[in-house]
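Entry 0007
Protein: Fe-S cluster assembly ATPase SufC
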Amino acid sequence: MLEIKNLHVKLEDEDKQILKGLDLTVEAGKVHAIMGPNGSGKSTLSYVLSGRDGYEVTEGSATLAGEDLLELDPEERAALGVFLAFQYPVEIPGVGNMTFLRTAVNSQRKARGEEELSAADFLKSIRAKAKELKIDADMLKRPVNVGFSGGEKKRNEILQMAMLEPKMCILDETDSGLDVDAMKLVAEGVNALRDEGRGFLVITHYQRLLDHIKPDVVHILADGKIVKTGGPELAMEVENNGYAGILAEVS
Ligand code: ADP
Ligand code: MG
Ligand code: MG
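Output (structure tokens):
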């Protein structure tokens, strides 16, 4: 699904190299977790994959189902099936949540050459998905994320993800700032979307999210590179011993 080879990324405006030869393959149907110390480049990786400005790829490649992602603008990547759930979801005053989602869903369908969803089909689909995520009708009508609590914003992101049906879901510290119940809801939402045709990259600082979203593979990212790859036990090792032991072992 997602194949990243020897990715080197620097800041556009500064002489600062952030990713330094990152290799990563996420297969369809699999959940890969990335853990790593603060400042190791985890968010940069998610931004570069989604096409955010400010970063320059100096070497390497990133493809989704064989398509060169780095050549595409952010909208084209989204239409291809890349979805990034942010650490800090944006508020959009004046735009109703439901209107926003309908526009997003239909513009992606259009970009893929598919027919728009009818108002009735859209409504049926969003109501069912909102119910699963315990998002009430009122939250669907309010402006996007405005006045939402941290937990509501994250659940709303999972709703966006569920509606857009992406091929590659990237969650960047979606668990940060959530209490245990909100985190469980987010995890359940993600688990409900696990599918043979879909890959996940779950970036997290803490093991606790991975108790609820069981990853197939865990990677440790340090200083711009994947330095260790293993199974769920690797996340336990981080939880118990921190990163120091792993970093000493690989250096
Ligand atoms: P992580 O998500 O693993 O904590 P980041 O990808 O956010 O790491 O950051 C990696 C490094 O790059 C950090 O040293 C960070 O300060 C720096 N960095 C990332 N983006 C920017 C930016 N836009 N401007 C300045 N420094 C940045
Ligand atoms: Mg950070
Ligand atoms: Mg980060």
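Curator remark: The mean pLDDT is 92. The first strand starts at residue 2 and ends at 11.
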